[in-house]
């Protein structure tokens, strides 16, 4: 399956959470755009700066509906891009930690097959994961072993992210927002785990402390090119009003970019292909072994 295959279910569940009426399977109607964009913008503003909404209780009701419309497609695409960076087994047992409504788990299932468990403390988010096709969910961290563990946009919400990663099994794929604060924090986790015997497998193969941390102004991200989510209003002119575009654009977003957030959702543009960025990490336990060496080891991506 691809992202387009998931759009009908995403729109159906987002409409229910936002209190919108039924509409087309692959697009918002013109009447739905403004309330949807307002919900997306409210959530966006709470996830940047001081990140006041970066907590599990955020993901319920209209905010969860906003997540399904905008962040779910982005996390799905980011996860697929991250999984292409490393050699992974087909048909793995997958654990998605801090899964929310399962964009990372479903991306991995679509890319690799296998079976997935979603772990999150938010029952409303897990209910959406089940509605979107995940068979098994858990509100406590499963203790069995997995071939692949996904941690997408979760470490920045934890007090001790390195301690959390140490509990995980298999290849651990970590994805964080490409903000300076979250990116630098992830690089700090990377350096901590390298000192403990993990091996950086992707996207950066350097096994020494990250030089980007030497200056407080620097950080590092990985980029992937994908088409923007097609969450545009149905049968609407592509002409846009500058005033409303500016009102609904997330702070710091470029209106010409496919990452223009609520502005694209409000104006009805189908964004051109653009770069979607994330701070990503692929680590493998095993000291100085090269990727693919025969020695068994625990991995994290």
Task: Describe, in short, the structure shown.
The chain contains ten helices and nine strands. It is of the alpha/beta class.
Topology:
Layout: H1 3-18, H2 30-46, H3 61-69, H4 71-83, E1 93-97, H5 103-112, E2 115-119, H6 123-131, E3 136-138, E4 148-152, H7 161-166, E5 171-176, H8 180-195, E6 198-202, E7 222-226, H9 242-248, H10 262-267, E8 274-285, E9 299-300
Parallel strand pairs: 1-2, 1-4, 2-3, 4-5
Antiparallel strand pairs: 5-8, 6-8, 7-8, 8-9
Helix pairs in contact: 1-3, 2-3, 4-5
Which fold name is given in CATH as the topology of the largest domain? Rossmann fold
Calculate Rg over CA atoms.
19 Å
Distance between the termini: 23 Å
H and E string: HHHHEHEHEEHEHEEHHEE
Shape: globular
In percent, how helical is the residue content? 25-40%
CATH domain class name of the largest domain? Alpha Beta
Low-pLDDT residue spans: 234-276, 287-301
The number of strands is: 9
């Amino acid at each position: 399956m691809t992202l387009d295959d998931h759009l009908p279910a995403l729109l159906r569940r987002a409409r229910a959470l936002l209190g919108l009426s039924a509409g087309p399977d692959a697009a918002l109607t013109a009447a739905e755009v403004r309330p949807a964009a307002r919900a997306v913008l409210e959530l966006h503003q709470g996830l940047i700066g001081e990140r006041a909404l970066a907590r599990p209780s955020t993901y319920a009701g209209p905010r969860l509906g906003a997540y399904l419309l905008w962040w779910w497609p982005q996390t799905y695409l980011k996860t697929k891009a991250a999984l292409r960076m490393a050699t992974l087994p087909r048909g793995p047992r997958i654990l998605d930690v801090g899964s929310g409504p399962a964009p990372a788990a479903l991306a991995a299932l679509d890319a690799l097959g296998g079976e997935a468990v979603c772990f999150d403390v938010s029952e409303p988010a897990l209910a959406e994961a089940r509605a979107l096709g995940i068979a098994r969910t858990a509100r406590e961290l499963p203790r069995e072993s997995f071939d692949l563990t996904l941690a997408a946009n979760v470490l920045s919400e934890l007090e001790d992210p390195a301690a959390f990663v140490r509990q995980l099994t298999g290849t651990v794929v970590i994805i964080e927002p490409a903000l300076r604060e979250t990116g630098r924090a992830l690089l700090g986790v990377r350096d901590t785990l390298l000192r403990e015997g993990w091996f950086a497998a992707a996207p950066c193969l350097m096994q020494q402390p990250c030089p980007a941390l030497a200056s407080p102004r620097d950080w590092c991200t990985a980029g992937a090119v994908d088409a923007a989510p097609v969450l545009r209003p149905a049968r609407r002119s592509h002409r846009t009003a500058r005033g409303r575009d500016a009102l609904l654009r997330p702070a710091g977003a470029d209106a010409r970019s496919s990452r223009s957030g609520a502005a694209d959702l409000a104006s009805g543009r189908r964004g051109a292909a653009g770069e979607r960025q994330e701070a990503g990490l692929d680590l493998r336990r095993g000291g100085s072994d090269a990727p693919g060496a025969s020695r068994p080891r625990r991995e994290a991506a």
